[in-house]
């Protein structure tokens, strides 16, 4: 529950106490995450933290064998000192673990995965996807929650890997249906709290730290730090009665991360050494050879572009890419530029990340839009949304001249610090064209190194597989070709081909301690959000919108006498988006003749079924208009009854 009380965010510690970590407007009370075995859990967390600290500094190529060797030697030391607990007879659990992706398979976005053991469910992530161009009028796309709503009494908690929209964007919609505790790191909780406050939802947010491990029913849930393009990113381990399952979240191996926090490779190797039943791993860049570049390489490129700019600098990136925002701030400060932030989501993230200490800038650097006119062009840096060419985002409106506060003109440097998401290339291209027509110098990933991916390429994925050493492997977070490519990498790294399973949204993966198989399918698919409506726009409505956008509409209005079915008035025809009537008088006159002949026959036949009359009107005019124009407008007959 989000409360406006003590103005602190509380977080879990290994001693199971709530500890104030930063001043803010909200309090996120923390559930007792370590109810069972508090002393034991405190030891595990402290030991993990120490190991992580000892292995965070490394250079050169990651050597998974060396890390595994280090883990193995420590286990021997524990055994020799008598601290190793002897294994008893292995119990074979009666229930099986089910893993059910409800989003994120065969697509980029709306990530959500269900982990179910017996009558207990843990949900991992609740993301959204942005609509493709043909989904006219749709704002966002979220997963179908039907399975969770039908099993709401079994849902114990939601755990979140990081704060990007494709992982938290549908959480407010889910919590309206199932209000359960949410566990995430500090920045992620801050971003979620803002969303819930906007939606008028009181959520039970629990702040965890990388390295924390706690029990939720039959699950022992552990968070470990991974490198991604937003601070507080984590992978998550689930220790269950059938074995340990690891979900990487979004990750890459970054030896020089912007925030100084490297991947917790020791924790990964420790999990691998103890035995991982199944790994679910990010497949986004599985088709790209090599390793993904460090985020820090962007810093030098931004400094170079800032040094060359003589006018204003307008930088567009993803609002949630906090690491990129910090580099932009550093460059602006280095060249004595004031920063002004535009775009609703950018303003929100900037405020939350600054408040929680993840975004640092000197006092007096940030200015309000109305202060822009007080400074010379070479003293200004504008940060904005719109890196994907979204029509209503800040950069797009600046490019079209419709932005109320920023007009692009010759001499401005526009930096697009992002790569187009598949499907957005046309929109981004149009935005760049418009900016260049205004005389701006545009810098993008096409002509400068101003963007690197936050997802690991093939060598990163191989390193993950070699550290975790899973018995079974399920590639996730990617389109189908990416999942297939990741499967081949896993086989190359020693996972048996039969032990790699590729599914789709709704697939039920069933695991025992010895097997993993596809055991069925649940309801899963896209749910469209249009304004305040959630799920009320289906395929039929989308098809109607597509038809209207392609060929327009013709409305036929007539009045019939209720007793005799004689025509009292009409028929009148109105065209919208089909043809301009004044320029198509012959076409519309021909349609009227066809309609008169049809209605005369209907009247003489004595037909009284209005549904049948409407169908005949649609068919007759549809054939006529297609014959004359090769277009298929939507035809909407309206019959009024006159007594």
Count of individual beta strands: 27
**If you compute it from the alpha carbons, what radius of gyration comes out, rounded to the nearest whole angstrom?**
29 Å
Q: Any guess at the CATH architecture of the largest domain?
A: 4-Layer Sandwich
Quote the distance from N terminus to C terminus. Answer: 59 Å
Rounded mean pLDDT is 84
Q: Regions with pLDDT < 50 over 5+ consecutive residues?
A: 1-60, 75-89
Strand order of the largest sheet: 9-8-7-5-4-3-21-22
CATH C-level class of the largest domain = Alpha Beta
**Tally of individual domains:** 3
Number of helices: 17
The name of the CATH topology of the largest domain is: Metallo-beta-lactamase, Chain A
User: How can the largest sheet be summarized?
Assistant: 8 strands, mixed
- Percent range of helical residues: 25-40%
Strand pairing plus helix content: what structural class?
A: alpha/beta
Describe the global form.
Answer: globular
What name goes with the CATH superfamily of the largest domain?
Ribonuclease Z/Hydroxyacylglutathione hydrolase-like
């Amino acid at each position: 529950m989000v409360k406006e009380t003590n103005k602190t965010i509380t977080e879990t510690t290994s001693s199971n106490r709530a500890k104030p970590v930063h001043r803010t407007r909200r309090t996120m009370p923390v559930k007792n995450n370590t109810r069972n075995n508090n002393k034991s859990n405190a030891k595990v967390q402290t030991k993990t933290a120490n190991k992580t600290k000892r292995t965070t500094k490394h250079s050169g190529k990651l050597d998974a064998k060396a890390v595994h060797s280090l883990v193995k030697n420590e286990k021997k030391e524990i055994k020799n000192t008598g601290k190793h607990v002897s294994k008893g007879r292995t119990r074979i659990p009666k229930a099986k673990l089910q893993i059910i992706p409800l989003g994120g398979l065969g697509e980029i976005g709306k990530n959500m995965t269900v982990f179910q053991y017996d009558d207990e469910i843990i949900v991992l992530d609740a993301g959204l996807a942005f609509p493709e161009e043909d989904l006219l009028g749709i704002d966002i796309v979220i997963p179908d929650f039907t399975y969770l709503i039908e099993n709401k009494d079994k849902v114990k908690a939601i755990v979140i890997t990081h704060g990007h929209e494709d992982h938290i964007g549908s959480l407010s919609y889910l919590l309206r249906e199932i209000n359960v505790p949410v566990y995430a790191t500090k920045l992620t909780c801050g971003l979620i709290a803002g969303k819930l406050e906007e939606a008028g939802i009181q959520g039970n947010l629990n702040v965890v730290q990388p390295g924390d491990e706690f029990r939720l029913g039959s699950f022992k849930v552990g968070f470990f730090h991974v490198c991604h393009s937003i601070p507080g990113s984590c992978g998550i381990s689930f220790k269950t009665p059938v074995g340990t399952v690891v979900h990487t979240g979004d990750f890459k191996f970054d030896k020089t991360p912007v925030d100084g926090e490297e991947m917790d490779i020791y924790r990964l190797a420790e999990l691998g050494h103890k035995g991982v039943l199944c790994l679910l791993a990010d497949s986004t860049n599985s088709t790209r050879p090599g390793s993904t570049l460090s985020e820090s390489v962007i810093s030098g490129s931004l400094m170079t572009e800032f040094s060359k700019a003589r006018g204003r600098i307008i930088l567009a990136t993803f609002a949630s890419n906090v690491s990129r925002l910090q580099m932009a701030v550093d460059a602006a400060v280095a060249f004595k530029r004031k920063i002004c932030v535009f775009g609703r989501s950018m303003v929100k993230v900037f405020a939350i990340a600054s408040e929680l200490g993840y975004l640092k800038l000197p006092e007096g650097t940030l200015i309000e839009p109305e202060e822009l006119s007080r400074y010379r062009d070479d003293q200004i840096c504008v940060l904005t949304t719109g890196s994907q060419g979204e029509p209503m985002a800040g950069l797009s409106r600046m490019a079209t001249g419709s932005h109320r506060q920023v007009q692009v003109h010759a001499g401005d440097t526009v930096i697009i610090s992002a790569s187009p998401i598949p499907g957005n290339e046309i929109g981004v291209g149009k935005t760049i064209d418009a900016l260049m027509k205004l005389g701006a110098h545009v810098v993008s990933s096409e002509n400068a190194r101003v963007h690197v991916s936050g997802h690991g390429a093939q060598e990163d994925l191989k390193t993950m597989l070699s550290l975790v050493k899973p018995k079974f492997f399920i590639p996730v977070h990617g389109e189908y070709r990416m999942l297939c490519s990741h499967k081949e990498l896993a086989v190359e790294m020693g996972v048996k081909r039969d032990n790699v399973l590729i599914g789709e949204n709704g697939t039920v993966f069933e695991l025992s301690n010895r097997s993993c198989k596809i055991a069925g399918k649940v309801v899963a698919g896209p749910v469209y959000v249009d304004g305040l409506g959630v799920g009320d726009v289906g395929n039929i409505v989308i098809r109607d919108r597509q038809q209207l956008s392609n060929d327009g509409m013709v409305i036929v209005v007539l009045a019939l006498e209720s007793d005799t079915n004689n025509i009292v008035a009409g028929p009148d025809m109105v065209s919208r988006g089909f043809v301009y009537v004044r320029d198509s008088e012959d076409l519309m006159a021909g349609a009227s003749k066809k309609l008169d002949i049809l209605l005369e026959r209907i009247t003489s036949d004595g037909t009284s079924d209005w549904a049948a009359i409407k169908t005949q009107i649609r068919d007759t005019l549809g054939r006529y208009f297609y014959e004359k124009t090769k277009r298929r407008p939507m035809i909407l007959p309206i019959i009024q009854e006159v007594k």
